[in-house]
Amino acid sequence: MKNYALPTILVFVLLGLFLGVMPSLAQERQKKKLKKKRARAERLSLNINNPHGFIDGHVHLNDLNMQLELMKKNRIARAIAFWGRNSTNESLIESFRDHPQKLIPFVSVSPERNKYRVLWKQNDPKLLAILEAQLKTGVFKGIGEISVTHFPGMGFPEADFSPNSTLMKGIMRLAEKYKVPVTIHCEVTRIREFSELLYEFKIVKVIWAHGGYTPYFLANRMLEKHPNLIYELSARTWLDHPRSSDYTIFKSNSEVWKQWLDLVEANPRRFIVGTDSSNHSAERDQRKIESVQLFLGLLTPETRTRVAQENLLELVQ
Predict the structure, then answer these.
(1) Residue 127 shares a structural domain with residue 195
(2) Are residues 228 and 185 in the same domain?
(3) Region of residue 279 (left: phi > 0; alpha: psi -120 to 50; beta: else)
């Protein structure tokens, strides 16, 4: 009997510990759920009384009807439209012709699409011919989003091409020729080459998608160094970014870090906002819109007007 007593006791002790831990884990999960609900309620209460309208600088148009409904609901006057998984440069032209007062179409030959990636890998000038043919239509108000360097994500292969390559320089020359801005997604890992590109093409206005997810001191350094750079804040106002928790400029559910607010207020003509909506979920895109509205509500009225609308309009008119 003694040989079986100790193992039996250990089993009961471990079972007791397990049963004791399970309720605490369940309680912890419940607390996290309640915290998220309260945070959302807090954000909604801040925005319901005074939702700030804006022009969206970053939308991947996959569902036109959903996008138009969200814009109507949230006082979004216009939106820069890039192609997404369910759209093309050609479909953007059609959408623009049906809704010219709502959409600002940008043309892209970005390497995340396989037919373009092959040309990027081969450094093939055919890519530039394809781009120019679209620009000649006169429909597109800009070029982008060009994801020259992009970390991998869900359904998104990594892109790691030089921002200072022959193809990128060709894209910039076309932007200069047709007098349109370029939205470039370039991670901080290639910031030196990106800076060289900006310096070489000082006349071309470059919208830095998500601001390269840089910390504020690098954002400040790049803005000081390159007068032609516009820092775009799409996905930076999300309170919970799926790729990294430090991408957001928010300190809490309702506060932006003071350093970021000071930087925007000191450079009111150098920032624009965007949602990075993709029309896969209206609820998810609505949360992105609310995060932009929350950020705009923390700016002074003069800066808010510039960042929410005027800066972007000056780029595309």
Answers:
(1) yes
(2) yes
(3) left
Whether residue 202 is found in the same domain as residue 241: yes
| Residue 16: domain span | 1-49
Helix axes 258-266, 216-225, angle to 10 degrees: 10
Q: Is the dihedral of CA 122, 125, 126, 129 positive or negative?
A: positive
Do residues 9 and 154 both lie within one domain?
A: no
Calculated CA dihedral for residues 295, 244, 234, 107, nearest 10 degrees: 180
Quick: pLDDT tens for 72-131.
Answer: 999 999 999 999 999 999 999 999 999 999 999 999 999 999 999 999 999 999 999 999
The 10s digit of each residue's pLDDT in 184-236 is: 999 999 999 999 999 999 999 999 999 988 999 999 999 999 999 999 999 88
Name which of 101, 88, 99, 87 is nearest 134 in CA terms: 88
Separation CA 257–CA 298 (nearest Å): 11
Please state, in angstroms and rounded to a whole number, the distance separating the CA atoms of residues 108 and 93. Answer: 12
224/88 same-domain check? yes
* 41 and 85 inside one domain: no
Residues 244-278 have pLDDT tens digits of: 556 788 888 889 999 999 999 999 999 999 999 99
What is the distance, to the nearest Å, from the Cα of residue 218 to the centroid of all Cα atoms in its chain?
Answer: 18
Closest C-alpha among 201, 209, 205, 196 to residue 236:
209
Of 31, 49, 67, the residue at which a domain comes to its end is 49
CATH number of the structural domain spanning residue 113: 3.20.20.140
Number of domains in the chain: 2
166: left (phi over 0), alpha (psi -120 to 50) or beta: alpha
CA angle 205, 143, 186 (to 5 degrees): 70
